[in-house]
Structure formats: structure tokens, C-alpha cells
Design a protein that fits this description.
Elements: H1 2-5, E1 10-13, H2 20-31, E2 34-37, H3 38-46, H4 50-56, H5 59-73, E3 79-82, H6 91-97, E4 101-107, H7 109-116, H8 128-139, E5 144-148, H9 154-172
Helix pairs in contact: 2-9, 3-5
This protein binds adenosine-5'-diphosphate, shikimate-3-phosphate (S3P) and magnesium ion.
Adenosine-5'-diphosphate is lined by residues 14, 16-22, 82, 115, 148, 152-154, 157.
């Protein structure tokens, strides 16, 4: 698999709660890749939780940090990157995402609502439905569309991504 992959990076995109962070970590382990999570790196650089960055500095500041971090991680090969749900909003971010394979984790709204109901660190969770509607056409521009059902475990989702990667790479050539 790794020979087939040739170090091509895998970027996970999708709305908050889709499983990018959870599945990205598993994917990296299975592929023997590095794992980056843009949100974790933003929190590390800012020295505070995402909710606190939004509250103190605002969304624009967060988005600028997000682009800076994305640019930095895009310099590495052989990595799986869990992005934040809003990364697809800025056109410049696509120039970094396009350096690898872009995988969209698509999860039904009812499942997302359940998953996010107790989370305190997603300041935009209240706008889930309108964000999903607005962003859907952007997520649709991914190289791979993974429709996740409610009974699939994160490991199963990671395996279905891995199974489709070789064909994706062939298509990109
Ligand atoms: N396939 C799955 N099945 C069940 N729960 C999941 C699945 N993927 C993610 N989760 C759970 O949903 C929540 C959000 O997942 P997370 O990976 O943080 O999503 P994202 O990074 O896309 O916002 C977490 O509590 C995680 O454990
Ligand atoms: O959808 C969004 O705009 C956001 C999603 C979050 O990441 P997850 O998608 O990992 O929850 C995080 O980047 C921030 O709260 C903003
Ligand atoms: Mg995440």
C-alpha cells in the first residue's frame, strides 16, 4: 500500500463531528503516516482552546492561524491531515489541500447533532445546519466522497478510505 501511495498526503475534510480527527489518527497509524490535526496545532500555537480563541480574538484570527498551519503541514509528505470543518471556505486553502488527496467524510445531520450535543469546544456548533448547507458544494469538490453510515466504526471508515486510495491516485495521474 505504501509503495502505491508514494507518500501522497491525505486531507480529511467535512463538517464538524464528521470524524476527521478520530479517523485521521487511525488512517495515519494504518498507513504508517504522520498525523496532523490543524485544530490541535492551532491550540498549541495560540496556547488556548479553540472556543477561547473565538471568544477572545474572533473567527478571522482563527482562520488566519488555520491557513498558516495548513501551509506548514502541507510541506510534509506521507501524512494524514485532519482539518477543521471550515477550512474549505478560503480559496487559498484549496491550493494547499490540492497538494494531496482530499477525502470528504459525509455524515447525516441527525448523527452529527447527537455527536456534538455535549461538546464545549466547537463555537460554531449552533450553526451546524446552515453551515452544512452553505459548505456542501465546497465539500463536494473533494477527490473522494465517503458517505458514513451510523453503524460504521471509525476503523471501518478508515479501511474504506484505504481501499479506494489506489484508484484515486491512478485517476489523478
Ligand atoms: N464512525 C464513528 N462512529 C461513531 N462515533 C464517531 C465516529 N467518528 C467519530 N465519532 C465520534 O464523534 C465525535 C466527533 O468526532 P471528531 O473526530 O472529533 O470529528 P471532527 O474532527 O470531524 O469534528 C467524537 O466524539 C468521536 O468519538
Ligand atoms: O466548522 C468549523 O468552522 C470549525 C470546525 C472545528 O473543527 P472540527 O471540524 O474538527 O470540529 C474547528 O476548526 C472550529 O471550531 C471551526
Ligand atoms: Mg476535528
Amino acid at each position: 500500500m505504501n509503495q502505491l501511495l508514494q507518500g501522497v498526503d491525505v486531507y480529511l475534510i467535512g463538517i464538524m463531528g464528521a470524524g476527521k480527527s478520530t479517523i485521521g489518527k487511525i488512517l495515519a497509524r494504518k498507513l504508517n503516516y504522520r498525523f496532523f490535526d490543524t485544530d490541535i496545532l492551532i491550540e498549541r500555537v495560540a496556547g488556548k482552546k479553540i472556543a477561547d480563541i473565538f471568544a477572545a480574538e474572533g473567527e478571522e484570527y482563527f482562520r488566519d492561524l488555520e491557513t498558516q498551519i495548513l501551509k506548514e503541514v502541507s510541506a510534509y509528505r506521507s501524512s494524514a491531515i485532519a482539518t477543521g470543518g471550515g477550512i474549505i471556505q478560503k480559496p487559498i486553502n484549496w491550493s494547499y489541500l490540492r497538494q494531496g488527496l482530499i477525502v470528504w467524510l459525509d455524515v447525516d445531520l441527525e448523527i452529527l447533532k447527537k455527536r456534538l450535543s455535549k461538546d464545549q469546544n466547537r463555537p460554531l456548533a449552533g450553526k451546524l445546519e446552515s453551515l452544512l448547507e452553505k459548505r456542501y458544494p465546497l465539500y463536494s469538490q473533494a477527490d473522494m466522497h465517503i458517505k458514513c453510515s451510523s453503524n460504521q466504526t471509525p476503523k471501518q471508515v478508515a479501511d474504506s478510505i484505504i481501499a479506494r486510495i489506489p484508484a484515486m491516485i491512478m485517476n489523478k495521474k
